[in-house]
């Protein structure tokens, strides 16, 4: 009997790291760390359980890499900024490796969409002096309250106006990414992913409407992606050639869910071409549906465009929940690996279930099981949570 989805379950090599199959766990914001950013035993169990489900690669939730330059985005966000963080992540990495999967820690700087309660009364920083019109993830709006079954008051926290980073500061921020990457490797990670997607700092450089600079870090696709390349170069110098280095990209952000690059495929081609000589081993496309590129003039999926233009292997995320969809992304040229978020959150054994080829009654993902601060002890893993008594805005 032929194996179900042979491409999906074949090995793949990214950089110098070989993975047992082409299934990655996409980063999922959990806010399960201690108040000081130290990973918890609950995080160890969470990641280990999904590694045990048969994944090839785990990309962790966004992790702040340094305390300087207001990099921390969320309350209860994990960090990789000090020795205590390293020790916490070592438990996670060791547990994942025990089950045969590889793990990369996603390094993230929130930029202009950092929760103001994490900033110590300092303004957020960004590519340019802009202000997000959104509000902090998981704060008060009717839709979020409805889907989480929450009653009563729930604070709405908006973002302050960002301060533009100087060129000298950009190099210092990039050095912070490199130092965080070195600590991630010390913790046992197989590499790192740089978060250049979903509205955070590097996205704010890559996206023209948030990058108003007129120096070498703005004004064209090649200049807009220059900071991401600088971060990659400094990380590669810090961690050496053998560890995996990935860059995550997207059109939309946490405060811009319908965002699109100007010119669609042409902009993606320019970004991909600029990344061709970068230090990254692979790119990771993040979207709600990778087949929808939001550019009617040319429907080519943007991960396909980026893969062709850059020559880099592509991890593709968005709109993939079934084995058939994953296999199609791989065989169509849109992906070398697929990344799943919500399906793996709801079904840690997704790889084994899909490999069996059997029909399966998938549970729908329910947002109420995603933790939000102030912590809701009625959902998720209440025995593993410690209320950090975050100040109200």
TrEMBL record:
<keyword id="KW-0560">Oxidoreductase</keyword>
<dbReference type="InterPro" id="IPR051799">
    <property type="entry name" value="NADH_flavin_oxidoreductase"/>
</dbReference>
<keyword id="KW-0285">Flavoprotein</keyword>
<dbReference type="InterPro" id="IPR001155">
    <property type="entry name" value="OxRdtase_FMN_N"/>
</dbReference>
<dbReference type="InterPro" id="IPR013785">
    <property type="entry name" value="Aldolase_TIM"/>
</dbReference>
<protein>
    <submittedName>
        <fullName>NADH:flavin oxidoreductase</fullName>
    </submittedName>
</protein>
<dbReference type="GO" id="GO:0016491">
    <property type="term" value="F:oxidoreductase activity"/>
</dbReference>
<feature type="domain" description="NADH:flavin oxidoreductase/NADH oxidase N-terminal">
    <location>
        <begin position="8"/>
        <end position="357"/>
    </location>
</feature>
<dbReference type="Pfam" id="PF00724">
    <property type="entry name" value="Oxidored_FMN"/>
</dbReference>
<dbReference type="GO" id="GO:0010181">
    <property type="term" value="F:FMN binding"/>
</dbReference>
């Amino acid at each position: 009997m032929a194996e179900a989805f042979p491409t999906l379950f074949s090995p793949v090599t990214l950089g110098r790291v070989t993975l047992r199959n082409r299934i990655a766990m996409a980063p999922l914001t959990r806010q399960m760390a201690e108040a000081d950013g130290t990973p918890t035993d609950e995080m160890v169990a969470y990641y280990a359980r999904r590694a045990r489900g048969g994944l090839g690669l785990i990309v962790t939730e966004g992790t702040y890499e340094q305390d300087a330059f207001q990099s921390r985005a969320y309350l209860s966000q994990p960090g990789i900024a000090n020795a205590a963080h390293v020790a916490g992540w070592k438990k996670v990495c060791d547990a994942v490796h025990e089950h045969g999967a590889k793990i990369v820690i996603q390094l993230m700087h929130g930029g202009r969409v950092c929760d103001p309660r994490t900033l110590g009364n300092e303004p957020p920083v960004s590519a340019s002096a802009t202000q997000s019109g959104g509000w902090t993830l998981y704060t008060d709006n009717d839709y979020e309250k409805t889907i989480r079954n929450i009653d009563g008051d729930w604070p709405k926290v908006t973002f302050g106006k960002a301060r533009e980073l100087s060129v000298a500061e950009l190099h210092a921020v990039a050095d912070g990414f490199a130092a965080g990457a070195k600590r991630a490797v010390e913790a046992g990670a197989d590499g790192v992913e740089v978060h250049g997607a979903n509205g955070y700092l590097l996205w704010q450089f890559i996206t023209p409407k948030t990058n108003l600079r007129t120096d070498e870090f703005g004004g064209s696709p090649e200049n807009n992606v220059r900071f991401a390349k600088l971060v990659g170069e400094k990380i590669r110098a810090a961690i050496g050639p053998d560890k995996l280095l990935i860059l995550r990209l997207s059109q939309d952000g946490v405060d811009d869910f319908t965002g699109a690059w100007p010119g669609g495929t042409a902009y993606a081609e320019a970004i991909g071409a600029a990344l061709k000589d970068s230090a990254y081993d692979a790119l990771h496309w993040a979207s709600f549906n990778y087949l929808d590129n939001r550019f009617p003039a040319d429907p080519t999926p943007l991960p396909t465009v980026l893969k062709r233009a850059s020559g880099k292997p592509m991890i593709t995320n968005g709109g993939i929940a079934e084995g058939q969809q994953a296999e199609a992304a791989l065989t169509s040229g849109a992906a070398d690996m697929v990344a799943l978020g919500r399906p793996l959150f709801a079904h840690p054994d997704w790889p084994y279930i899909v490999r069996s080829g059997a029909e399966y009654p998938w549970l729908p993902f329910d947002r109420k099981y995603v933790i939000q601060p102030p912590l809701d002890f009625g959902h998720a893993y209440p025995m593993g949570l410690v209320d950090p008594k975050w100040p109200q805005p």
